[in-house]
UniProtKB/TrEMBL annotation:
Single GO term (MF): cell adhesion molecule binding
Record-annotated Dilute domain positions: 1-150
Protein name: Afadin
Signal peptide (UniProt feature, chain positions): none
Organism: Zootermopsis nevadensis (Dampwood termite)
GO BP terms: regulation of protein localization
Gene Ontology, cellular component aspect: adherens junction
Length: 150
């Protein structure tokens, strides 16, 4: 960014460059999370499942750092626009453990769905289906997944 400013690159071009970069980060990281294996296969002993609360927390922390940097550079609108999907996916993974109570009510489902407005139904289904709870959490019931997706 300092080099772009020193060379007096047009601000609109700078915004377009970083918008593309934020879009790529969003696309790559979201695809990595959604396509991660749910459990390691014998042929893939190092396969990592990213659909966990721990990875949601890590991802949210790193994205917050990126958002803070973008805000300091005056790129907060581009970051908000292009990183929204992965930020919402990370938030969803983080809060699922709080929602994994034995009983679910309509308010919980509505709140969960409203925080993920950038995620379409297929993306929500994939994230919720692949979610790996910690040993002390119950698994997400299929009915819950279908209600949230609906």
């Amino acid at each position: 960014m300092a080099l772009l400013r020193r060379c007096r690159v047009n601000a609109a071009l700078t915004i377009q460059l970083f918008s593309q970069l934020f879009h790529f980060i969003n696309m790559w990281s979201f695809n990595k999370v959604v396509t991660s294996p749910t459990s390691p296969h014998p042929q893939q002993p190092h396969g990592v499942c990213y659909c966990t609360r721990t990875w949601g927390l890590r991802l949210k922390s790193k994205l917050a750092q990126l958002e803070a940097w973008a805000e300091r550079q005056g790129l907060e609108l581009a970051a908000d626009c292009h990183l929204a999907r992965i930020i919402q996916a990370a938030h969803l993974l983080q809060v699922l453990s709080r929602r994994a109570a034995p009983k679910y009510n309509a308010d919980d489902l509505a709140t969960l769905s409203s925080t993920c407005f950038k995620l379409n139904s297929l993306q929500l289904r994939s994230l919720l289906s692949k979610y790996q709870p910690t040993p002390d959490e119950p698994r997400l019931p299929h009915e819950l997944i279908e209600n949230v997706v609906r």
